[in-house]
Amino acid sequence: MHDDFPAPDITPESRPFWEAAARGTFLIRRCPACGTAHFYPRSLCPICHQAETDWVESPGEGEIYTWTVMRKSPKGPFALGYLTLDEGPRVYVCFRPEDHAGLAIGKRARIVFDPVQGGARMLFATLI
Amino acid sequence: MSIRNKAAIVGIYEHPLRKAPDHSTPQLHAEVARGALADAGLGFADVDGYFCAGDAPSLMGMVDYLGLGDLSVMDGSEMGGASYIAAVDKAAQAIALGKCRVALVTLAGRPRQEKPQPRPNGAEGGFELPYGGSPPNSYAMVAQRHMHEFGTTAEDLAWVKVAASHHAQWNENALLRDVVTVEDVLDSPMVADPLHRLDCCVVTDGGGAFVITTPEIARELNVTPVMVRGAAHAFKGQMGGRVDLTWSAAALSGPRALEEAGVTVRDIKYASIYDSFTITVIMQLEDLGFCEKGQGGQFVRDGGLISGQGRLPWNTDGGGLCNNHPINRGGMTKVIEAVRQLRGAAHPKVQVPDCDLALVTGIGGMLGLRHSAATCILERADA
Question: Which residues of chain A have pLDDT under 70?
Fold first, then answer.
């Protein structure tokens, strides 16, 4: 539980992502024209612009591209970074507090959906 | 069509305040506007182009407050700290096309007094805003990757602050005037790994302004005109998840501005390089071609940026790291100190001898998420 984090803003475009997240499923968008997966999800393929993209399930696993622990924060330290998914895209994530001491570029991690304010689910990452 | 030598900066003003509890933001815009126009020997009635950015309460609100009359060009594009270097580009374009004759560009704000405004919530908002990230962690993610890929060290980063502090000691308005050592930077508290407190810029109230006009009007004024030789702006984001944090959009804006100016970085006598954080400077030195990619740490080591002793005289007012980073956007002060250098009006302890060609950059936004960069090349008119 991350009480100090507000719920994510949900748009008509992102609603399927957050509905899946509430079930613990991580969705990314893949373009049927160029075959490329991207993040954050959008209906226009940001790589080739050729087609409307499709939702696909992802295991949400990959390796840490970069990280930082923010020490100067009223809600206490929190760690941000990018996770390079095995499918290719880099996802901007917050790492779980228990992982702070072990963060390193190249380490494996996966996406998890933890509750934030109001019980909504937000994506976080944890070491594996 | 090129803007080369089609416009000249003729007036500059940097607000002396670094803390402004007793001012309103429009009042600060007005004070810097008046200061820059007075420096040029012009008045508000001469202005027919006006440029501001997201620090202004609103474009139309500021035009109304300043009592500007028949404007033929106005623009309030928001590119963060890059806005005012991009404004050099856009104002010079407007002047070159004959769309306006005298353009005023202002920046002002009070971040020490007021809470930061929430970021606009775009499609990316749901995936980013709940984390509560801020500039220090965004730039720290970049620094962490730079260290990993190129072996850049915390000591390398610290040398950037050391150089800024050497310059700030001569600036009576600088917020931080104490000369610091590499050890002082490394001993300061960690803010966001690997950035220490002294790797971060100051937060200041205040502002600045400049005036751009045609070469013909510039010659009639009692100032040394500073010609705009070239300018460009660019953007880099997360690229749909293909984000590569080892380079900045200065790698795009820099070569375009240099090409338009018809010069190379070897010709540059003075560099105003945006310094929101120490890593911001190292990245841009590489991206602009002052050194090879990955060699920025080596370039700044052992006082490489200290005026009079290093490889490249840089941010001789103390920069955003020590002097002034008004309303969390330092592009304006980068233009102002470059003009001082080209006029020969910088502090004698840091003035570059026969300074005739300067490069100025701005970075706006979050280097680790999405940002704009702008570059301009300025030249002393009699050079």
Answer: 1
Alpha-carbon distance B338 to nearest alpha carbon in chain A (angstroms): 33
Structure tokens at B191: 């803010």
Binding-face residues of A in 41-100 toward B, CB within 8 A: 42, 45-47, 65-73, 75, 78, 80-82, 85, 88-92, 94
Cross-chain Cβ contact B137/A80 below 8 Å: yes
Q: Are strands B49-51 and B73-75 parallel, antiparallel or unpaired?
A: parallel
Q: Which of B363, B375, B376 is nearest to B139 (CA)?
A: B363
> Rounded to the nearest 5°, which phi and psi values hold at B15?
-65, 135
- Spell out which residues of chain A touch residue B144, defining contact as CB-CB under 8 Å: 66-68, 81, 105
Q: What is the mean pLDDT of chain B?
A: 97
Q: How far is B201 from chain A (nearest CA, A)?
A: 15
A1 shares contact with chain B (CB less than 8 Å) = no
Q: What is the pTM of this model?
A: 0.97
ipTM of the complex: 0.97
Q: Is the pLDDT of residue B383 over 70?
A: no
**Using one digit for the tens of pLDDT, what is the confidence trace for B1-51?**
899 999 999 999 999 999 999 999 999 999 999 999 999 999 999 999 999
Residue B192 to residues A5, B51, B134, Cα–Cα distance (Å): 18, 34, 10
CB < 8 Å to A100, chain B: none
Q: Tell me the residue ranges of DSSP E strands in chain B.
A: 8-14, 49-51, 73-75, 102-109, 190-192, 195-196, 206-213, 226-236, 270-272, 357-366, 370-380
Inter-chain residue contact B124 with A36, CB threshold 8 Å: no
